[in-house]
Amino acid sequence: MNTQHLSRALVNQLLEHAQHYPQQEVCGLLGGRAGVPVSCYPIANSAGVPQRLFTMDPAQQIAALRSMRERGETLYAIYHSHPNTPPVPSRTDIEEAAYPEVVYLIVSLQTKGVLELRGYRLCEDAVVEIPLEISD
């Protein structure tokens, strides 16, 4: 699987979002141009149990997709955090994955002092981890 390149600035935005809400799953989208991620769109988690699940606020998700379109971006990745578990897709993550062409990024806060970020392709019960490379 092809290595996905992420800028340190974007990764820091994801990590800061997760750290800001350490007791619940955070979520959002990354917009890209020509297959390169360029923008982060944090979206409120409207799940009934945000400690264990994420559901993107529909109005914010639509607004983020509209902003991407206006900026000439396409959906590059969907991200969320796991406050107390490893950065591995849960059964719910896999079942609810609706965009097989995008990267799914998961941030884990499970390890004290160390944040872990992993990427995946999720489609039809297939989970393929994608190598991530972070660059300045």
In a nutshell, what does this entry contain?
With 136 residues, the protein is of the alpha/beta class. The protein has helices spanning 8-20, 58-70, 91-96, and strands at residues 4-7, 27-33, 36-43, 74-82, 103-108, 116-123, 126-130, 132-135. It has a single domain, classed as Cytidine Deaminase, domain 2 (3-Layer(aba) Sandwich), CATH 3.40.140.
CA-CA gap between termini:
22 Å
* Percent of sequence in beta strands: 35-45%
Annotated CATH architecture:
3-Layer(aba) Sandwich
Largest sheet: 6 strands, mixed
Q: What is the N-to-C succession of helices and strands?
A: EHEEHEHEEEE
Count, helices: 3
Strand-pairing-aware structural class:
alpha/beta
How many structural domains in the coordinates? 1
Give me the count of strands: 8
Rough outline: globular
CATH class category? Alpha Beta
Architecture overview:
This protein is an alpha/beta fold and 136 residues long. The chain has a single domain, classed as Cytidine Deaminase, domain 2 (3-Layer(aba) Sandwich), CATH 3.40.140.10. It contains three helices and eight strands; from the N terminus they run E-H-E-E-H-E-H-E-E-E-E. The strands form two sheets. A six-stranded mixed sheet has the order 3-2-4-5-6-7. A two-stranded parallel ribbon has the order 1-8. A hairpin with a 7-residue loop joins strand 5 and strand 6. The longest helix has 13 residues. It is globular and about 35 Å long.
